[in-house]
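Retry 2 of 3 after timeout on previous attempt. Resubmitting structure tokens to design endpoint.
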């Protein structure tokens, strides 16, 4: 059963009618004299037009809801679709394993790569296991360990960003959450192999930056990327989380705003109605974008790759400072 967002009422009604028509038996069709194929085709055209009209003018709060849609492809979906022979590696060699961040080596279009990403989970059991994609310090320390490994073997690093933010629990703070995020961000900056980051859903706060300080930052059309969640900003600024919609509009968290500011490098267009409506098509588009980004660094030496990344983020700081 499809999940519809609060602003998709018209779409839900039209697709409900299509489902009703398709559920009619042959006898009911003959008695009613209905040409189901023709009726369904007309309704599908209406759905496509309604989706195009609606998604052409989404506001930041509506895009936030699309970015959080439970049926959007998650990191593991992209890994299964794009990376052959993926071998997950576990543990930070300091405290333990964190399932919110998955990572390991694999083959992307014939070349060895290191893949790291936040995984939210797709059902209740997996969401609890992956802590809804909110990593603890050991997750970021595992990411650093994997980046060290990637550099040792000259493997490009591909990251997938999809988190509301780092886990804010007491245990995480006791184990050095802020320091772990900072170390991961620093390791991204110092890495001497290409690092390509793709924001596939939510890019929340330092929890996202820790894996997205990349040579090329790609972002899906309806993803979001911000220093804080709209709810968090509303709670701090107005002491009222119900003003999240107002905060979303002020945060400049959508792809077009971030591209204009130079924070991201490329926007990957989503299928009509969002990535969740055509996940295979979306994953294919992401694969093409990652492949094109990696080609830009073909033949560059490690120091040049590191310097390009460093200069890129320094220029962002100068432009926004």
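Retry 2 succeeded. Sequence:
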């Amino acid at each position: 059963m499809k999940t519809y967002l609060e602003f998709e009422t018209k779409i839900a009604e039209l697709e409900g009618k299509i489902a009703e028509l398709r559920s009619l038996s042959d006898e009911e069709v003959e008695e009613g004299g209905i040409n189901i194929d023709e009726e369904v085709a007309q309704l599908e055209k209406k759905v496509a037009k309604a989706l195009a009209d609606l998604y052409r003018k989404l506001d930041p709060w509506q895009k936030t809801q699309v970015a959080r849609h439970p049926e959007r492809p998650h990191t593991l979906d992209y890994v299964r679709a794009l990376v052959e022979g993926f071998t997950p590696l576990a543990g930070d060699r300091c405290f333990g394993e964190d399932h919110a961040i998955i990572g390991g080596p694999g083959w992307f279009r014939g070349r060895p790569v290191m893949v790291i990403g936040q995984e939210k989970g797709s059902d209740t059991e997996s969401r609890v296991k992956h802590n809804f994609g909110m990593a603890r310090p050991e997750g970021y320390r595992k990411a650093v360990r994997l980046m060290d490994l990637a550099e040792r073997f000259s493997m490009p690093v591909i990251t997938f960003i999809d988190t509301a933010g780092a886990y804010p629990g007491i245990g995480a703070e006791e184990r050095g959450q802020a320091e772990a995020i900072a170390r991961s961000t620093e390791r991204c900056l110092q890495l001497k192999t290409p690092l390509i980051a793709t924001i596939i859903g939510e890019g929340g706060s330092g929890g996202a930056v820790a894996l997205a300080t990349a040579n090329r930052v790609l972002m899906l059309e309806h993803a979001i990327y911000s220093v804080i969640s709209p709810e968090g900003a509303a709670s701090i600024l107005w002491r009222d989380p119900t003003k999240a919609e107002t905060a979303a509009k002020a945060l400049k968290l959508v792809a077009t705003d971030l591209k204009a500011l130079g924070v991201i490098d490329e926007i990957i267009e989503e299928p009509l109605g969002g990535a969740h409506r055509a996940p295979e098509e979306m994953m294919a588009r992401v694969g093409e974008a990652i492949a094109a980004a990696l080609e830009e660094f073909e033949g560059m030496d490690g120091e040049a790759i590191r310097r390009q990344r460093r200069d890129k983020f320094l220029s962002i700081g100068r432009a926004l400072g």
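Attempt log closed. The chain has 15 helices and seven strands.
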